[in-house]
Amino acid sequence: MKNTLILILMALFLFLAIYFYWQMDKAQSQLALADEKITSLEAQVKRFTNRGTDDTMTTLSPSQPSVVPVPEDEEPTPPESTTFEGELGSLSQSDIDRLKKKGLKNPEADLMNDLMRKQKSVLTAQGSMGGTMAIRDIRILNDRYAMAYFEDGHNGGHLLLRYAVNNGTITWTRLDSYTM
């Protein structure tokens, strides 16, 4: 009877050891898949932040939304205007009209040029190894917000800015920033 109880306990421990090893292996494989996905997303973010000026200029024009009929049995997808991936860094026509009414002749160019002139007032990060922090890429998100990428050649980061336009005068407020 004692030997049977010991054998049952040993079998139970062996089963638990195998079960927990199997769970650990499953979790490690899921973690490896998640790491691959994160690496892929980081590469996409890096490509986005390191785009050249030629690519930047082509994305600044507003895109035309496409209308796709949705069958009645499917759930409708949101229109392109609610997804920011393709429109990040471009003003809609209504944003451009509002900014023109506030005194800007060419809103995107005026905002970018003004921010480049005033970048020392919004950049608080210090350069390293003799570098000077400077804004390298600007995305005007809408008629109130902009995002900028800055770097000194060694380190970089992003700024989230709010701007206000009054009679053609632009004022900038830094809302958030981080360095990479």
H-E string: HHHHHEEEE
Biggest sheet details: 4 strands, antiparallel
Query: Structural class of the secondary structure composition?
Result: alpha+beta
The strand order across the widest sheet is 1-2-3-4
Give the low-confidence spans: 53-68, 78-85
- The number of E-state strands comes to 4
Mean pLDDT: 78
- The helix count comes to 5
The count of domains is: 2
Radius of gyration: 27 Å
- The N- to C-terminal Cα distance equals 66 Å
How much of the sequence lies in strands comes to 15-25%
Helix content: 40-55%
Apparent shape:
elongated
Region (Disordered): 51-88
Keywords: Coiled coil
Biased composition (Low complexity): 58-70
Coiled coil: 24-51
Structure, explained:
The protein has 180 residues and is an alpha+beta fold. Helices cover 44% and strands 20% of the residues.
Question: What is the gist of this entry?
Answer:
Keywords: Coiled coil. Helix content is 44%, strand content 20%. With 180 residues, it is of the alpha+beta class.
What attributes characterize this protein structure?
180 residues; alpha+beta; four-stranded antiparallel sheet; 5 helices; 4 strands; 44% helix; elongated; coiled coil
List the helices and strands and how they pair.
Blueprint: H1 2-49, H2 53-59, H3 93-101, H4 107-117, H5 119-122, E1 134-140, E2 145-151, E3 156-166, E4 169-179
